[in-house]
Amino acid sequence: MTPEPLTVRSITPPECRNCSASVPVDEHFCPQCSRIQSLGRHGDYFAFLGLPRRLELDSQELDRRFRDLSRQFHPDFYYNATPSERLASLERSSYLNDAYRALKQPVSRIEHLLSIEGLPLGTSDQGNAKVPPSLLEEVFALNEELDEIRDARESGADPSVLAERLAAARRPIEAKRDEHERALAEASAQWDREASAGAAERRAALETLRQLLLERNYIVNLLATIEREAAAHG
Fold first, then answer.
1. C-alpha to C-alpha distance for 62 and 94, rounded to whole angstroms
2. Running along the chain, 234 residues long, what does each successive block of 10 average in pLDDT?
């Protein structure tokens, strides 16, 4: 069964603790009395910052919204406010920082989009993660080369020669990473182009993003393995 995407707009609007007016979840301040609202249930960083659910964001606009909200939520403005308002300013300030960090970087932005659209990556480490089919050849060749390098090191091989072999083993993995960076950029643009497309098209775009990101994360793990091996030679 396909999971329902998380959308904060489907949540019944809470009431303002000060005047009991209905306040949409995406609103930071009560539209009636202007008091800051408790964070409550949220989950969508795009909506929290008042941004469209897009992957190609204007970094200057993101920075501007972050600065504006940082000033509005700053606890210093609520020093003499009620305890609930002081708590609300702290909650929203902390959540704002989380949202900004997630949306600032393209990869974490994609991860957040997948999460709120119902396709989270989940967590796994390289040891138990299934090798993506598109990387089988590279993974097999790398593991074989690393085994040979370890055997050579135990046999007392010249460290400089082993360092050269590690550098050579790293190059095709780095090339694969660069290839995935370009593919992710194109898939991100595709998602944005299909903002008004049907559910099937949008789902397909998300599936592509998820698969590419899983492969990219595996590639990053491979590069980390090479770095650990290089450190062992150092």
1. 16
2. 46 81 90 91 89 95 97 94 94 96 96 94 55 87 92 89 93 94 95 90 95 93 92 73
The residues, ordered by sequence, that sit 6+ positions from 200 with a Cβ below 8 Å of its Cβ are none
CB within 8 Å of 95: residues ≥ 6 apart: 39, 42, 48
Structure tokens at 214: 């899983």
Torsion of CA 151, 153, 159, 165, to 10 degrees: 20
Only one residue has tokens 């370009």, namely: 182
Q: How far apart are CA 110 and CA 199, in angstroms?
A: 18
H runs (alpha helix) in the chain = 45-48, 59-73, 83-104, 106-116, 136-154, 159-193, 199-233
CA-CA distance, 132 to 212, in Å (whole number)?
10
**CATH H superfamily, domain 8-116:** DnaJ domain (1.10.287.110)
Delimit the domains of the chain by residue range: 8-116, 133-233
What are the tokens at 25? Answer: 């979840």
DSSP 8-class letter at 79: T
Phi, psi of 9 (to 5 degrees): -70, -15
Paired with 29 in beta bridges are: 36
What radius of gyration do the chain's Cα atoms show? 24
Residue with tokens 């069964």: 1
